Amino acid sequence: MTAARAARRPDHRDDRGTATVFVVGLALILLALAGLVVDGGLAINARERVADDVEQASRAGAERVDVLTLRQSGVVRIDPAAAQLAAEQFLAARGYGAGDVTVTADATTVHTQAQRRVSTALLSLVFINSFTVSAQARARPASGITAAVP
After folding, report:
1. CA Rg value for the chain
2. 8 Å CB contact between 130 and 115
3. In the chain, N or C terminus with fewer CB closer than 10 Å?
4. pTM beyond 0.85, yes or no
5. Coil, helix or strand for 63?
6. Exposure string over 128-146, b if 16+ CB within 10 A, otherwise e
7. In this structure, what are the phi and psi dihedrals at residue 93, rounded to the nearest 5 degrees?
8. What is the pLDDT of residue 55?
9. Among 51, 63, 60, CA closest to 134
10. pLDDT tens digits, one per residue of 36-67
């Protein structure tokens, strides 16, 4: 290096490359935000599917009415064993494992809970590979018109 060049050189640290570090950091932040948006949408969609499935399973169980009691007394009651089996079979047909489903039934109500593990699309880049969504629903039998039509 010549003496003239050394004299022109400022006496501070070289900042070459700082823009590259900034751009890489910003790109990582934007990718993480995109992951939250995409995988957040997946989570909402999965939650709605699970909610729909447990609602339908509860309704399938609530349809299992004790016919003998209905014919003898006119009282609509659920057959708890048949209702529980119907709800469990409905969810099994939709791909839920036995460990992911809880169904309870009594003479008046069927209560169903289910959960499902969903894989992430972009958040796996930051080591979040999956998340679990769950929902619950209740159904009861109804017959006839029980409310006035406006």
Report:
1. 30
2. no
3. C
4. no
5. coil
6. eeebebebebebebeeeee
7. -65, -25
8. 97
9. 51
10. 899 999 999 999 999 999 999 999 999 999 99
